[in-house]
Known about the structure:
By secondary structure, this protein is mostly helical. 78% of the residues lie in helices and 1% in strands. The protein contains nine helices and two strands, in the order H-H-E-E-H-H-H-H-H-H-H. Strands 1-2 form a two-stranded antiparallel ribbon. A hairpin with a 2-residue loop joins strand 1 and strand 2. Helix 3 packs antiparallel against helix 9 and helix 5 crosses helix 6.
Amino acid sequence: MFADQSLQFEFKGIQTCLEQINTDMNTSDSLVMTTLSDINANLSAINANLVASNQNSFLGVSWDILLPAIISILVFVLGYYITSLLERRKIQKGRNLVRDTIVTWADSNSENLEKYVKSIRDLAEGIGNSDNISPQEFHIQHITIDVLSQFSIDRLTDALVSGLPDKIEKKGENLNAYMQSVSYLIRTQKIVLDIYDEYCSRSNDIFMQWSNKWRAFTHNCEMNNMRLHLQPPINPEKIFYLKVSHTIKSHLNDGSGFAEYGNIMAEIKQLFDTVPIQTNEIITSSYVFGDLYVTMIQSDNMKQYKQSFMDCAERIKNAVDLFQNAVDFYRERKMNYWA
């Protein structure tokens, strides 16, 4: 009878602990709560049976010996089971954290990703449409996608592959798409800025070359006009340099863009091609003009950066679409508690 009373006391203590765990558990853990309730009900049934029983032994073994052993085994099994449940809950929370962080960042930065692509396209269009030799400003939209690199491959695989039910297909494909897109979007920010720095450096260099060579050419023409000032009006060399000077003055004004220099260069080139005489001064002037003309061609070639940035924008847009599709896939999936 002493053993029965002791067992009843132990069962009451276990039931109290189960009720406390049941209360402390998150209400969302319905499976754990159901299991603990079943154990609690079974213990109540055992306790009731012991109260009703008047036997002092079971299969020839005294309850004084058998009951402490049963209690020890039951407490051990119950403790192991509860520990496993709590550990599984901790793992599930970690997996949910990974998924929720990715989804939250994507939702918060969807508009910024679109602005990022647009800012690169706007730069490309500006380069293509500009008639200014100096570099175009780049109003880049910065993105903070590098925060997603905090999760290791092992953790991503555990949450986004192992953490989903086996019946879900294309888990691996979507994880690969997610990792590829994030990696590219992180790297491409530096790639775009490096291309822009190169573009600015070359544009500034060409601008300085153009300014110096243009001054050298116009100064050469002025010196020749002064040298030929006293020559008769019908002097072919004098006529040539006067035509060059007139071409420059007739096209340029305070509001002239750099594109107007292209028209000037085309007309002056025509004058050099059709000059009726060749003097040492004209030959020298043609060399100065040729050097300036090369810089003009280099300036025109800077338009190629338009296509470079357009290609970057297209690749980034594809990566953003890949990223969004992967995020949408995981947004709609629930983590598998027992995975």
